[in-house]
Amino acid sequence: MAGHSKWANIKRQKARVDAKKGAVFTKISREIIVAARSGVPDPAGNFQLRTAIEKAKAAGIPNDNIERAIAKGAGKLGSEGAALEAIRYEGYGPSGVAVLIEALTDNRNRTAADLRVAFSKNGGNLGETGCVSWMFDQKGVVEVALMPPDNGRKRREEPAQPVDEEALLEACLEGGAETYELTQGEEVAVAVAITAPANLEQLSTTLKEQGFNVTQVELRWIANNTVEVSDSDQARSLLKLMDALEDLDDVQTVTANFEMSDELMAMSLA
């Protein structure tokens, strides 16, 4: 399996989750509403809904909120779920960086206006549909922690045994992964397996059934080529744009095709 290009810097939402917990709750709740509306409102028979619920629990969203979002999606609590629609927007940031935005909105005019302001204030511009999407492929992504979950040990003083990476690679191949790479997560090293979107459920199920600690399952846009950003002013403007876009209520995900050094990113965020 060929290694995948370094895209850890391209998607930065995780680093800001704690500071934006309320916004994260809203975004994930919307995912649950749309997932419940688009399929059966039962996670056992709806992989999209099951994945959204797992994400919600990982983010600490209370069960009552999750159940309420499912009910909204099923049409049992008013028409809020029916009003939401998924829209993809595209644009350019500083240094010609391509930006792809996924939104869930009940008012596309409001969302487009908010995006246009965010781009214009931070050195970018909102583009036409199709202007940058050709630079990205949508893939199914499964992340596996390279240390097993702590609940498998009877006593905390018992050391956790690291994951057998050869066995993990074999399981990824069995599940239909196209590429596989090791990277550093927020707390532990993780393996990232990438597959075709239609095969995401199969890959996730295979890894879970073989006892691996799956920490994230999602569809993700991955750039075919990247732009290296090395100018500090451009880097600062670009990161401000990414933050401004991610802060919008209607925006679910923001993906861009830039790379920059860890040192420049740290300096630009300071």
List keywords for this structure.
Alpha-Beta Plaits; four-stranded antiparallel β-sheet; 38% helix; alpha+beta; globular; single chain; Arc Repressor Mutant, subunit A; 3 domains; disordered N terminus; 23% strand; 270 residues
Structure summary:
The chain is an alpha+beta fold and 270 residues long. It has helices at 21-38, 47-58, 63-73, 80-83, 108-121, 165-175, 200-209, 232-246, 262-269, and strands at residues 85-92, 98-105, 125-126, 136-145, 179-184, 189-195, 214-223, 227-228, 251-256, 258-259. The protein has 9 helices and 10 strands.
SSE layout and pairings?
Elements (H helix, E strand, L loop, with lengths): L20 H18 L8 H12 L4 H11 L6 H4 L1 E8 L5 E8 L2 H14 L3 E2 L9 E10 L19 H11 L3 E6 L4 E7 L4 H10 L4 E10 L3 E2 L3 H15 L4 E6 L1 E2 L2 H8 L1
Parallel strand pairs: 8-10
Antiparallel strand pairs: 1-2, 1-3, 2-9, 4-6, 4-7, 5-6
Structural write-up:
The protein is of the alpha+beta class. It has three domains: 14-82, Arc Repressor Mutant, subunit A; 85-135 and 224-262, YebC, transcriptional regulation domain (Alpha-Beta Plaits, 2-Layer Sandwich), CATH 3.30.70; 136-222, Alpha-Beta Plaits. 38% of the residues lie in helices and 23% in strands. It has nine helices and ten strands. The chain has helices spanning 21-38, 47-58, 63-73, 80-83, 108-121, 165-175, 200-209, 232-246, 262-269, and strands at residues 85-92, 98-105, 125-126, 136-145, 179-184, 189-195, 214-223, 227-228, 251-256, 258-259. The strands form three sheets. The chain has a four-stranded antiparallel sheet. Strands 5-6-4-7 form a four-stranded antiparallel sheet. It has a two-stranded parallel sheet with strand order 8-10. Strand 5 (179-184) and strand 6 form a beta hairpin. Helix 6 (165-175) runs antiparallel to helix 7 (200-209). The radius of gyration is 19 Å and the shape is globular.
